[in-house]
Amino acid sequence: MNHPILPSEIKSLIYHIRGKAVMFDNDLADLYQVETRTLNQAVRRNSERFPEDFMFQLTEEEADRLRSQIVISNIGRGGRRYAPYVFTEQGVAMLSSVLNSDIAIKANIQIMRAFVQVKRLGLTVLDIRRKLDGMEKKYDHQFKIVFDAIRQLLAPPPAPTKKAKIGFTPPEKK
User: Fold this and answer.
1) Which residues contact 18 (CB under 8 A, 6 or more apart)?
2) Which of 23, 51, 71, 169 has the largest count of CB atoms under 10 Å?
3) Full-model pTM
4) How many angstroms separate the CA atoms of 29 and 39, rounded?
């Protein structure tokens, strides 16, 4: 690593998929300064250390959805030929034992700190929601608009919808 990577930088690499906080194999490979195929090869050689709650491969549908959000590259444009693997916090911790290098150890420490920060943030949002519920019961309906607005701010972003194609489509291709 040219500069020490900070947990705040790593937090942007943590995604929520299937209700779990995960990191992509290619992002982890970058942090560990190895090729993605090298990381995945080490995992395959030690597959007994990576049960499904530590690591899983995305379905094609999940990968397509993420491609549309520009998280992972397109297959036809020199990108991945297969759906990526993602690692939960436990899987990332296990990676440090498989990729035993000084860089992997230092990166792993920062990644673990980032996961802790993400968990704290999640708990904070839950605490705010609980307090809001309590306040709403306590105060009359004149504050309902305020409570509803705050709930909208706390809600996760909606799932992406399919975009309509722009442009003219000839009648024979419809």
Assistant:
1) 56
2) 23
3) 0.58
4) 6
Beta-carbon-side half-sphere exposure of residue 60 (alpha carbons within 13 Å): 3
89: Cβ contacts below 8 Å, ≥ 6 apart: 21, 112, 115
Q: Measured between alpha carbons, how far is 174 from 156 in angstroms, rounded to an integer?
A: 36
What domains does the chain contain, in order, with CATH numbers? 7-118 (3.10.260)
**Does the CA dihedral 25-41-18-117 come out positive or negative?**
negative
Q: Which tens digit of pLDDT belongs to each residue from 62-86?
A: 887 777 665 555 544 445 677 899 9
DSSP code, position 13: T
Cβ–Cβ < 8 Å for 88, 55: yes
CA 93 to chain centre: 16
CB 110 within 8 A of CB 32: no
CB atoms under 10 Å from CB of 121, counted, come to 11
Tens of pLDDT along 33-65?
A: 889 999 999 999 999 999 999 999 998 888 877
Q: Which of 20, 30, 5 is nearest to 99 (CA)?
A: 30
104 token code pair: 């992997």
